Amino acid sequence: MMQILTFGISGKMPGYLSSQTPIGTKRYDSDTGRHYLKWIILFLMAIFFQRSPAQEMQQAVEFTLEQEAKTQDGVVPEEDGLWQQWDYLGRHRLNLNMADEEALVHLLGLSKMEASLFIRYRSQFGKLIDVMELQAIPGLALETIRRILPFIKVAQETVDLPLLRERFKNGEHMVLCRGGITRDMYAAGFRKADDGFAGNDASVMLRYTYRYASLVQWGVTIEKDAGERFFPGGISRGPDFWTMHFSIRAVGSIRALVLGDFHVNLGQGLVHWQSMAFRKGASGISVHRQGLRVRPYNGTDENRFHRGIGVDIGKKNTGLLVFAAADRQDGNKVSDTTNGDDYAISSVQWSGLHRTLLELEDKDAFQQHVLGGSLYWNNGRWKLAWNGISYWFRNAIEKGGEPYRRFNISGRQWMNHSLDYGGTVRNMFLFGEIAQAGNRSFGFLQGLMISVDPRLDLAFVFRHFPASYKAMQANVFAEQSNPGNETGLYAAMSIRPFSAWRLDAWLDLYYNPWLQYGVNRPAQGRDWQLNLAWKPTKMLEITQRIHAGRNEISYPGDGPIYPATGLKSQIQYRIQVSFQPNRFIQLRQRAEISKIRLENQRDRGALFSVDMTAKLPKHPSSVSARLSWFQADSYEARLFQFERDVLYSYAISSLFRRGLRTYLLFSSRFLQDWTIGLKASVTLFNDNQFISQIGQDRQPSGKWAVRLQFMRIF
């Protein structure tokens, strides 16, 4: 059981509560003494601590997401549910005196350890008086408190669950319309017939959502990407992509019911995980997968969701999740004469793009029926769950003849099931998952998080996924998000030696015992990162980062069977300075260098950028601007940069060649409940290198893009 800091009224130094002390035990002689002591502590804290504006905290969250997105090579799911949650919590703050552990974890993003510390503190000392009291909880870092401040409040009143009619009547409606155009500067872009695109160069998204907290939600989203037709099969066949959902929670024994499109997240991701989840990133100790088991989906990722029904029922510590779906997936078709079908599926496509004739042919190539569930038990300290999922494919899946595809999923059926567990022991959180695939291959992951001291946290993850272990939509904490052909050990440390300093470091060693794409022999690699942050005042923050890795890849050689294998090493240096002279303006500068080495070839990349965000003093409007200079010798040396976008959207620029990139983002609220967002960006290249694009063999000198969004909340 977690240790928590307690204060005695005799004037002694604070000590640690014994792990044998029951949660409900009171350490004071009277409630009056405890009440006055709290106010004394809060008064002393107020001298040294001031709340930062919500805008600053939002930018800090964006910075963290940027770092974690880089570890995934700039490829992140097209899901904006996280941004919608932040915006909703910014307008409807969570009352910490009523929040349970699930709300702290899934709404505020606290780790399991942090949520347990908070619940234990509140049980020991009673309701909070002010949010500044969070600093009295050992193990809850000041950075975490600053991050969640815009989304929390402290209120003493208690409110029962609202009646059903109130949930359907007193909620919040949101209507959103977003459009954009992206064009290369040498031509008319997607509109030219010889580019091979079926539609125009505009991207469009329409969305309607009704929401009452997390208790009731329904909505519909319609979207088309640039280069696609809005109605590729005619108006009678509907738009290129649409999604619809209805969700209700906390009705008797029904913890959650979702109809239509939804996400399912099981265990640690070895079997199934569809929501956004990060791997190795800026926060090295965030190694535990946590998310709602079932949640409604209204994003624009066109393949990573289920369409059907999911219901989560339970009583006290035990619950059961059951879901069934009939999904259509994109895939490559190949002729098939062995199974009696017109075609088989050689690979599943996840891009969701249907711009060219070949991409349109892959659209909804096969149908899959899915049945799954999770039987779980959770007493607040320990949890245990059995998870299972089965697939039936209308068309057979072929694994292909290449050696590295030997263990790929094939046939008309597939299944996975697992046992996942977790629990706290004093100042440690132990978690893991053991899974089996349809071919009887086992894989497992074991993790440990330790709060050694209020200023020192450690995390360890060991995973072993044989080459024969496969899962359809898994997302696990590892070098590769989809488990298989990997054994590795990860270790991380977060230390806060002084109030203004924080050092995050991690090291990952992994081994691939079988062949993989681009590597025609067993291979090994390593990856490490150091991130040092210094925040002497609330106006200034300086961060430095070093990220390095080495792995084996194949390249053409003289071998009789396999190409030769060489070492690829890379290292990135980065420094960023954020300065906020007042509560209306924030400035940010970044310099980054990337070096790639492959045998005798050495490539370099460099980036320098300046950002400015200004909020108008007497009007709900803001302006953000950026100017970036970049240079990369090759595509391998490219750099990634997170960009702010219109509300609920974000972008990650992949920068290579040599040039400049700038954007201007404007956001404003008018007529009380209307919000407008406008972003214009331009990229200019000043070199003669070749850039390849789908269906094009010409070299653009630059490109520009415009996005416009209108949103009403009422």
Describe the structure in your own words.
There is one protein chain. With 714 residues, the chain is mainly β. The chain has a domain at 5-48 and 79-164. 12% of the residues lie in helices and 48% in strands. The chain contains 8 helices and 33 strands. The protein has a 24-stranded antiparallel beta barrel. The longest helix has 18 residues, at 31-48. The radius of gyration is 26 Å and the shape is globular. Mean pLDDT is 83; it is low at 1-30, 42-57, 187-194 and 690-697.
User: What is the overall pLDDT average?
Assistant: 83
What proportion strand?
A: over 45%
Helix content: 10-25%
Structural class: mainly beta
What is the overall silhouette? Answer: globular
Question: Gap between N and C termini, in Å?
Answer: 45 Å
Tally of helical segments: 8
**Using DSSP, what is the number of strands?**
33
| Biggest sheet overview | 24 strands, antiparallel, barrel
Low-confidence stretches: 1-30, 42-57, 187-194, 690-697
Radius of gyration: 26 Å
